[in-house]
Hints:
The complex is a heterodimer of chains A (189) and B (189). Chain A is mainly β and 189 residues long. Chain A has 3 helices and 14 strands. Chain A has helices at residues 75-85, 135-141, 154-160; strands at residues 3-14, 19-20, 23-24, 29-31, 34-38, 41-45, 50-52, 70-74, 97-99, 113-116, 122-130, 167-170, 178-181, 185-188. In chain A, strand 10 (113-116) and strand 11 form a beta hairpin. In chain B, 15% of the residues lie in helices and 34% in strands. Chain B is α+β, with helices and mostly antiparallel strands and 189 residues long. Chain B contains 4 helices and 12 strands. At the A-B interface, strand 7 of A face strand 5 of B.
Amino acid sequence: MSKSLGQIVLLQIHTESLKRGDVYDPSSLLAVERGSIDGSGMLGWNGTGWAVDIHHEAHPRAKGGGHKALSIGFVAHYERMAERFGDAPLGVAGENIIVDGPAVSAQDVAAGLVVRTQDGAVFEFRSPMPALACPGFTSHLLRSATVLPRDEITEHLAFLSTGTRGFILSVDHIDRPVEVSVGDEVFTR
Amino acid sequence: MSELLGRIVRLQIQAEPLKATGRYIPEHLVTAEKALIGEAGILIWDGSGWIVDAHHRSHPRARGGGNRALSIGFTGHYEAMAQRFDSVPVGIAGENIIVDGPAVRMADVGGGLLIRRSDGVEIGLEGPRPAAPCRPFTSFLLGSDSVLQRDTIQSELAFLSDGTRGFLVSVRQADRLVEIEVGDQVLIR
């Protein structure tokens, strides 16, 4: 571990798709107390049971084919989005893990990320890739009732797509479930 | 020719293993009107998300290694258990599917079971085998605060075997999930 980026302040799953057609609708985001992560994706404890994120292979409408099993975002990215778009509630982009940390670039996290849990367990997330912003999400931030054409929002898409919209993480190497909770600390690797 | 056994009257999952502490504590049973079943196990929608059964391959503490995706019990068995042990609420043994039907034996269901939905779709439940009664569950039925020694409960264990404690079944649906609901019919194949 090289540098602390901050503590996890929000864990959430997508119980269903956040897109209605192409329109972005974050109403299916569910904040959870703790998450369980393995190579298949993330489950979140919802107080009753382990609820399945839509990117997990066990979800009835699994998205991403296991290639975008987990995502992470940073509070400072939300501050930047709020500055640009007026309002960007924490977690609205749907990342599974939100860290109370700085606005990092792809270069800052290129070697991967490490989580240290409050009971001392350590595991890594590999190959962070900036999540590409889509017209649906960008139009949502712009408070447009319709999905705007890509050529009208080119600058916004570029702004969001260098990590501001979060990072997709590889968890293929996690062959036994690991548990994360709000308060766990995230480091660069 | 298939023989109708009865209709599903209860669907439930074990949100966490019922014997995590060594004793049988049925507090993590969660019921639903509908469920999704597949090779990996059963999920239910609890109002906020799809949650996985403790025997589902993706559960953080998956039990049974995916070899016992699903279990099924019959109200006839519960009546027999209630006669022997006094109070035995339907579903307390934790089977995922409870059928309002007779106390069938292994010899009756050895060829497999079928669920027939109201739209006529049939789902095969293959390889039924009696769930082996364990000491914690048997001790629970006897009202004991501790787990009793096997040699003191041999007669009860024998009574609960051969299907009274339910059957384990496999689901073969070529990697897809199918929905079942309370009211669907269950038949002998």
